[in-house]
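Record type: monomer structure entry
Structure origin: computed from sequence
Chain ID: A
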Amino acid sequence: ADYNNAADIKTLGVAICLEKISTQAFYIENKNDNFDKLKEIFEDESIKKYTYNCKNDINILKNKGLFLNNVDFDVFLASYIKNPNRNHELSAQAFDFINHISVELEDKKSKLSSILTSSLADYAMDNAFSILKLTEYWKNELSANELKLLDEIELPLSIVLAQMEYDGVAI
């Protein structure tokens, strides 16, 4: 990856998959202040956001001066709650639970900034699609107690941990 932590990542773009049009995802490249135009969406409390590792997403956007409000679901956390011992990678979850083979980047060892924008876009849009479909899967698979644990403990804790990571912690 091109970063040591989410707070100092160079953001190349963002992919969004809308719940109402779940068969199509969109990729917005980070140029010409495109992220500023998405500020309303990211910060709107009435729009639910589904993520994979919201802690990173919060800090990546915070580094751009944006705040990710109303994180409603995190498929990484859902997978961990269901079975802490399994592989929680997005591609593994997509394959195991929604029978989806994820788009892979051809050269995983290259810096992301050196990969073609079209390849990055395909990869990011596929991830967004997988997150939406896995959210649907996990909302049906988790028990009421597991959903409560996610909503009342894990997601709020992730927001606190994201802030701690962003600010740094003195020891």
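Annotation 1: DSSP finds six helices and four strands in the chain.
Annotation 2: The longest helix spans residues 117-141.
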